[in-house]
Amino acid sequence: MSNLPSIGSYPFLAEPFHCDCSKRLFIGHLGNHLLNAADYHSSERGYGMNYLNTINATWVLSRLAIELGEVPLMYDKFNVETWVESVMRYFTNRNFKILGSNGKVYGYGSSIWAMINTESRQPVDILDVKDGAINNCVEKEYLCPIASCSRVRIGTDIPLVQTIDTTYHDVDVNGHINSIKYIEHALNLWSLDWHKQHFVKRIEVAYVAETYIGDKLNFYKMESSNATCTEALIRITKTNIDGEAEVCRIKIVFNQKIE
Length: 259
Prior knowledge:
ten-stranded antiparallel sheet
């Protein structure tokens, strides 16, 4: 681990059936590539999920921001660079850079992760793991030029637009609803024609609570537009036998496609 660079770089491909009708990579698949890069990076350095599971711990995503100048086209090869910018007791900041051939930059990502106990679901002190080995991998000089993740403040007086069931394909290796699934379900709130004419310039997600199979997800949405973009705020709650509770807040900025 001590011989590895602080920045990891991992190759990916915009596979045909991971692309939408405009032949651009689905944002959900791009998000999963970022999360996979994070896992590869942490696993190579000794604090990934395979090791953490042996001590009843795992990483969970707390906040995520992705900002794009362009989305990879079908068959585009690209690399996701990732690095840890800072570490606190219960959270770590991790950044991403999405790079194509000839130095082309598709965009950047910023994220905040927490470590939790897989049995109690309570926070774990990150600095207790391997005597704080993660501190040896912090990279402060490689800059991520986008705005960092926010709390995505949304009021509670916005309209309910959809309620869905959670099913098998929503559940990930941690046993809860996958972080990226919230993004995919949120983007489904717009029509195919809308997506043909717009692309996601920036998306921010603030995760509040975990959701499990059998919970219903409720989507509350408001949006505003100007001459250049449309901004949407989405509040997601879960409904189960305990009632309704907020689980996620999302902000999406759409730009008009010019291609």
